[in-house]
């Protein structure tokens, strides 16, 4: 039982890291990248969500 | 396991993001459009004539508001991925993750991602004076990271030293200070800016609580399905 739990934990850590990095990438894209097209499209959201804009 | 993270995050992020986006369109967008009238010079605060506080505002703009909805859903999906990563690790360490405990996670997420950075860099209406955007973004990421670690330590730490470190992590970004503008040049009335910040925070909290609840719920449901189909 203990072995199963430990194996599961170590198996889960890498996907968790993957999810966190992917999430950060998504937020950087929608909230932070200053490319004009992205900025204009996400403009109102960036303000309403409290991201630094402009 | 990858699909459990992705599916839970997509469902929770899309649902909470859609609700957040609609709430923003109802409560925040009119305030933002009002501010833009001052930013663009259509209205002038403290000009020759007093200005009505209830000007005619542009209505729904399908393209602009549609993009806002999509980007809000994307943003909350990103938040969900990060929160579920932490939830997954916490569950391995014995924490219960479901829709009910997800509410607490949502409040913590709001504190880390909205309240902590917003405490010194308040949600700003268009047109306000602000420091260089890159400096503010660096400060934003550092503050969010420090607050997230601090909240984890508060929730899962077991002694005063750990909680002390958490307090320092929460306070330090604000004592060091956020990048601020050299001069104030915002043309927007303070009444509009204050209402904007308050509403941005209010909807942020509502959306994060929903996001935490949904993420916990879908995480548990996806887990049940995996357990049901897994060979024993």
Structural overview:
The complex is a heterodimer of chains A (54) and B (232). Chain A is built from two helices and no strands. Chain A is mostly helical and 54 residues long. Chain A has one domain. The mean pLDDT of chain A is 83. With 232 residues, chain B is mostly helical. In chain B, helix 1 packs antiparallel against helix 7, helix 2 (29-39) packs across helix 7 and helix 4 (99-120) crosses helix 5. Chains A and B meet through helix 1 and helix 2 of A and helix 1, helix 3, helix 4, helix 5 and helix 7 of B.
Topology:
The complex is a heterodimer of chains A (54) and B (232).
Chain A: H1 2-31, H2 36-49
Chain B: H1 2-27, H2 29-39, H3 62-92, H4 99-120, H5 133-156, H6 160-176, H7 190-229
Helix pairs in contact in B: 1-3, 1-7, 2-7, 3-7, 4-5, 4-7, 5-6
Could you tell me the mean pLDDT of chain A?
83
Oligomeric nature of the chains: heterodimer
Largest sheet of chain B: none
- Secondary-structure class of chain B: mainly alpha
Count of alpha/pi helices of chain A: 2
Structural class, from helix and strand content of chain A? mainly alpha
Rg of Cα set of chain A: 18 Å
Mean pLDDT of chain B: 94
Quick one: which chains have the greatest interface? A-B, 34 and 51 residues
Measured by DSSP, the beta-strand proportion of chain A falls in under 5%
Query: Per the principal axes of the C-alpha atoms, what is the gross shape of chain A?
Result: elongated
What separation lies between the terminal Cα atoms of chain B? 17 Å
Radius of gyration of chain B: 20 Å
Helix content of chain A: over 70%
């Amino acid at each position: 039982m203990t072995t199963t739990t430990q194996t599961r934990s170590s198996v889960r850590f890498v996907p968790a890291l993957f999810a966190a990095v992917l999430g950060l990438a998504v937020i950087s894209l929608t909230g932070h990248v200053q490319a004009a097209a992205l900025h204009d499209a996400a403009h109102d959201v960036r303000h309403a969500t409290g991201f630094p804009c402009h | 396991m990858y699909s459990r993270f992705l599916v839970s995050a997509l469902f929770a992020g899309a649902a909470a993001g859609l609700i957040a986006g609609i709430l923003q369109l109802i409560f925040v967008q009119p305030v933002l459009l009002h501010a833009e009238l001052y930013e663009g010079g259509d209205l002038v605060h403290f000009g020759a004539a007093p200005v009505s506080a209830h000007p005619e505002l542009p209505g729904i703009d399908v393209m602009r508001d549609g993009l806002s909805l999509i980007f809000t859903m994307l943003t909350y999906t990103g938040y969900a991925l990060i929160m579920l990563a932490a939830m997954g690790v916490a569950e391995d360490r014995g924490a219960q993750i479901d829709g009910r405990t997800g509410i607490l996670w949502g409040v913590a997420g709001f504190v880390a991602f909205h309240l902590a950075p917003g405490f010194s860099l308040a949600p700003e209406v268009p047109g306000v004076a602000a420091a260089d955007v890159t400096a503010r973004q660096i400060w934003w990421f550092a503050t969010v990271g420090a607050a997230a670690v601090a909240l984890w330590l508060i929730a899962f730490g077991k002694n005063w030293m750990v909680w002390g470190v958490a307090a320092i992590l929460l306070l330090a970004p604000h004592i060091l200070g956020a990048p601020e503008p050299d001069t104030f040049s915002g043309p927007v009335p303070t009444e509009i800016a204050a209402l904007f910040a308050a509403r941005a925070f209010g909807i942020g909290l509502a959306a994060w609580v929903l996001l935490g609840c949904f993420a916990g719920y879908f995480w548990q449901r996806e887990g049940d399905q995996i357990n049901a189909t897994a060979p024993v």
